[in-house]
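User:
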Amino acid sequence: MLKIVLIINDLIEKAKVKSYLNKLNSSQEQFEFQLVAEFNDSSEAINFLYQNREIDILIIENSLKGIYSGIDFALLAEKEFPYSSIILISEENDNLNLSEYQLNNLNSVLTKLSNSDSFINSLRMTAIKQKQKLKNMAENRKILEDYQKIIDYNNDAIFLLELDDSNNFYYTRMNQSCLDLTGFKNRELEKYKTDDIFSSEIAEELKENINRCVREKQKVNFKSSLVFSSSQRIWDINLYPILKNDIVKEVVGSLTDISEIERKKKKLKYCLEHDILTGLYNKDYFIDKLKNLEIKEEAVYSFLFINIDSFNLYKNFYGFEKADELLKKSAEIINKIFKANSLKAQIDNALFAVLLENRSKNELISAAEAIKKEFSKLKLNNIKFDISVLIKSSNSEQKTLLDIFKISIDELKSIEYNLRDSQKSLFYKSHCDFIEKNNYNNLHHSSNLLELSKKTVLEFNLNEEASRKFMLLAKLHDIGKLTIDKNILKKGASLNKSEWKRYLSHVDKSAIFAASYYDLAEIYDLIYHHHEHFDGSGYPAALKEKEIPFLNRLFTLLNFYDNLKNNLYYPFKEDKYYFAALTDQEIAAEIDKYKGKVFDPKLSDKFIKKLIIGDK
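Assistant: Predicted structure:
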């Protein structure tokens, strides 16, 4: 199959040429053509050709944009890519005077108006010539390459071996790079054998490959780790036979230091197979292993899945940096429990899988319990996490390992949904415990906020359903403040626009927190609108008057009172701040001042009477 590269900037011309190629391939002639690459830009094409020299035909447009015209590219290819044949495509009115150029590789010149028959016939002739050219070159290449290696790669370590009549070989010459490596001088090499220069193990490997080179009368390539000057490095070694009367009389060897290349290949292989953050295998590698794993008849394979069910909420709440820390800690736990004879992978965000072979039911249960125990100790930002652990094992009636894997993923989703009940969630409870343990100081509220809420519920005669929602609103409305920089919450001065925007974000965060649990989703709207103002000047939706739910209008008064009663710093509005706690009379005056603006006038009067002045 002849390999073709297109270097054509004209999209219409490129499409035509590709259609001609398809037509020729479908005709089932003696030649098959493979389009291996296509380029608009000549510099990209050059980079590709330097890395892929075995291209048979280059189809080049003369009016290329970029550094090289088509003829320039043909001239470069004549020197750098002599194995390739060239078809040049030009404009109809191009007056190409090719006689001044020596272009042995240029096989045909076509214009953009050439029809398909002209192009196909030209390609046929180019293919015939290319086949003959390759045959001729192959006959001469072997001898030429053997000696050209010595010149072209003189930075490599090169040595020359001579064989005697008994096929014993001796070093007769080394280039300077090889001498520097071995510490010898050429005049000292006479009658040295491989055993005299290399350790016995390496000498044996080298002798074996030299003998193969002599026996097969062809190039031998292998890699080896050789030690020179106390430095062990990886070498790519080529051995080239030099024949005289069809008998190998000498062997040229070249050593290329590929230690850095091998290191990069190893690193790339690691990156392709592992999650860089956690160091565990990634999903693609894990699934490939499942597909290719040879199932032993006597073996039982088991999966152990670990899912951090509260991960997405934690990431949305505290950000990517904290989420990454959680993933790394989780990987450490998994590596601690499963040290050997297991395949450990991060499947998706906070879903991990471990594949085990021939583990008893008790061993699997013990491993699951150990995982749960270690995760129960894990605390970040004083927060605990909800995890699911699922065990699945293969048996004679089971489907493939990949099928078991897919079924388990679906089952985990169901388990995760059940943990969206706040009363079953450690994540939820640890947040509430942390807030209550610190007397609501982290939310800049007083410790008697809930007591004041209970009193408000009673004074305003709320029914059981409304009372329950009001208490949840009081408890969770500012939970998003846990994610805000403490320097903003304690600034004690006016916030700049960026700081104010971050301060307002606690509304969204608090609402999303509640919406993440299906038993709290009903108060999402109440939390989301707890900073709306009666005249429409609030946020985030600028609702006004009766558009604002009754419980929000009532809670706005309670929230304001609690902040002014207990806070030393309260960003009330972007242009209004309080910097010290006020007395009840002062708070009543402030509420009266904002009646009809921030607060519902009717509710304001009643709130002042029943919960502020009425206490006196």
